[in-house]
Amino acid sequence: MGQATDAPDAGGPAQASAVASTAAGRVIGPARAGGFAVPLLRGHAQVTFLPSAAAGALFVLALSAASWEYGLYGLLGTAVGTGAARLLGVDRDRVESGLEGFNACLTSLSCAVLLGPRHLSTALLAIAGCVVVTVVTAAVTRLLGACGLPSLTLPFCLVASATALAAPAFRRLWHHGEGLAALAGPATGPTAPRPDQLARGFLAGFAQIFLMPQWYVGALLLAGLLIAGRRAAAVACLGSATGIATAWALGAPAGRIADGTAGYNAVLVALALCGVFLPVRAATLAYALVGAAAATALGPSVSALFAPSGGHAFTWPFVLTTLVFLAAARSFPRLGAPGG
Q1: CA torsion through residues 335, 56, 212, 3, sign
Q2: Are 261 and 209 in contact (CB under 8 A)?
Q3: pTM exceeding the 0.85 threshold for the entire prediction
């Protein structure tokens, strides 16, 4: 999702620079080398389209607040992905701006969440997965770039879904006994969230982007967005609110709203469609919020499709919705889409 500067694959360096500036809510220059720490932190921040080391540092703190293991896995993933990209000779600007780290960060975290962070096999698989996702990123970037579309978190989704499906078949990887396969059933439980559930859900929607359910993790992530730019933070908040409102209107269980699973895809879609890949204006904001609502409604469908692996939707709803809306935007001149 660090596609704030992923546009070189779709529209050239000049377009990428303008998009990155809008995403951060301020003018930023081209990525410059800053040792390894700066691209490492930017890799964390690029999960929410921000080429900001300061925001990335707060994101690391947020993951560590959930658990020191998750903070470590996030750093491990970003470091391996960034290092692998450097060794393979990936374009320096992509590496330095963090675009080669965010999918690896999420891949490493998914291994920890799915398989348990305190197993050596999990750590080794996370390292291997981050190398693989670097290769997958290159392939997806080239394929989608030919269509003028960004890679988003599609590489992470592909690797994480494959891991979730395959892991129970390997005894040295799976430590949970029975598999997680389950048929999707109708929603149960109350559908009227209490005020405290709405508040927790609003913040947890940010945390679920990193696969975490804690509201205080989401609060720290939102603070990171504010550091990078108030405009991006405002759009993200509107996305979270849209996701919650859509889930409530459709009758989602209050528990699903409170744990953030109803809102995180909406946050990412709103950011992508208003300020990252499309310019910030009233029309694109409305378009982005429609996309946020669509992604929220799509979420249970994706979970049902992945029921054999425990129903892990990851960020598939965000990826599918954003790609469709970006492709369609070229037919709507008022949105100001490149190539429209």
Answers
A1: positive
A2: no
A3: yes
